[in-house]
Specification:
six-stranded mixed β-sheet, six-stranded antiparallel β-sheet, globular
Length: 384
């Protein structure tokens, strides 16, 4: 078995996996146009879209997140401009979190500056370009782009330091704006102007920065535990520790053999409706097609215990697929990557670890996970 080398026990939560899913890890959003597919609360915080909280959103560009599908390139000297509505005043960035590029420095070498801009202690306002999966940016970011503010247009401007190629290219843009606070609840339109078309042609799109009155439940894939869970750190499988970016192992799109576990376990960060850590989740089979995510807290009434669901699809005729819950610690005292950033974190969070094993037929296996009144994510494993 995949986790037989250490004491990482697998729960006996096994199932056949059937359903119908899309091809990206993040669903599209209403109000998105052009090259913008969606804008959502960032996966590393519980409240990046809540009024009064630091602004932290993930922009997903149109196209597939499959790393085998080319993303967008950016030629040296070309720009991506993010034009914010006036309610997000970029001329008034909190000086405690100055505009900066990651790394500053990286890896973090003592003595750190007063306000470091490094994973685990992001005391800055910054923007990160992603390849389409968590915690693997174009790295080191400062070698790919520089970040500035155009006060006249209330825009953040990313300028390419060198050519960024298409493979896998730019697929997501993470706004970690710790020095900006979300305005009153509502929907605010963000414009993207990117010289990412053929030969640097201008492409545009828009999306909505939806600001909530309070947090919503969320489940979010993370790559920071991939190395530990796959035995890359010391040759033995373990639940931790997490690793800072870059994390090149992609848990969202994977390839395996028929009847074989996917090479990387799925780890999710989980929060409830009050930004509380969902640290007591158990995967429960309902039918061959459908699963529930159930809280095991005995103090909850039964109608509040089911907080989410999993639906999976398989190639026609596939059998013997299974999904097993990994018995890692389900509580994290600080969100990975953000860490203990003063004024922002640490944020307590729940952790859910799952291992998928492909069935007896080659093809595409996909999993959709979602929380009630919350978000949804998709994971893909291709068996050959």
């Amino acid at each position: 078995m995949f986790f037989s080398r250490r004491s990482v026990a697998l729960r006996a939560t096994t199932a056949c996996l059937i359903g119908a899913l899309g091809s990206t890890a993040y669903a599209g959003a209403r109000g998105a146009t052009g090259i913008v597919a969606s804008i959502e609360n960032a996966p590393i915080v519980a409240n990046g879209d809540v009024t009064g909280a630091p602004t932290d959103y993930l922009i997903t560009l149109d196209g597939s997140l499959d790393p085998q599908v080319a993303g967008r390139g950016l030629q040296a000297g070309s720009t991506i401009r993010l034009l914010f509505p006036p309610e997000f005043d970029l001329s008034d960035i909190d000086p405690a979190y100055p505009l900066n590029d990651v790394p500053f420095p990286f890896p973090p070498v003592p003595p750190l500056p007063d306000r470091p801009c490094v994973p685990g202690n992001l005391q800055c306002t910054t923007v990160i370009l992603l390849k389409g999966w968590p915690q693997d940016p174009l790295f080191p970011p400062v070698l790919f782009t520089t970040l500035s503010v155009d006060v006249a247009d209330n825009a953040l401007v990313l300028t390419a330091v060198r050519d960024i190629d298409l493979n896998p290219g730019i697929k997501q843009i993470h706004l970690i704006l710790n020095g900006v606070r979300n305005p009153a609840p509502g929907a605010y339109r963000l414009k993207v102007e990117a010289q990412t078309g053929p030969n640097g042609a201008l492409e545009t799109g828009e999306g909505l920065l939806k600001v909530r009155r309070s947090p919503a439940p969320s489940i979010n894939p993370t790559a920071v535990f991939v190395k530990a869970l796959s035995g890359q750190l010391d040759g033995g499988v373990a639940c931790g520790p997490g690793t800072n970016p870059p994390n090149p192992d992609n848990p969202i799109f994977q390839t395996t053999s028929v009847g074989t576990p996917a090479p990387f376990a799925w780890t999710f960060l989980t929060w409830g409706a009050n930004a509380e850590p969902l640290d007591d989740l158990k995967l429960v089979r309902v039918t061959r097609h459908f699963y529930k995510l159930v809280r095991t807290d005995s103090g909850l009434p039964w109608w509040r215990r089911v907080v989410g669901y999993v639906r999976l699809s398989t190639p026609p005729g596939a059998r013997h697929m299974r999904i097993e819950q990994i018995d890692c610690d389900r509580f994290l005292p600080a969100t990975p990557v953000i860490g203990a950033t003063p004024g922002v974190g640490p944020q307590l969070v729940g952790r859910l670890d799952l291992q998928f094993t492909a069935g007896d037929q080659p093809g595409v296996y996909r999993a959709k996970l979602w929380l009630r009144n919350g978000n949804r994510v998709e994971m893909t494993v291709i068996a050959d």
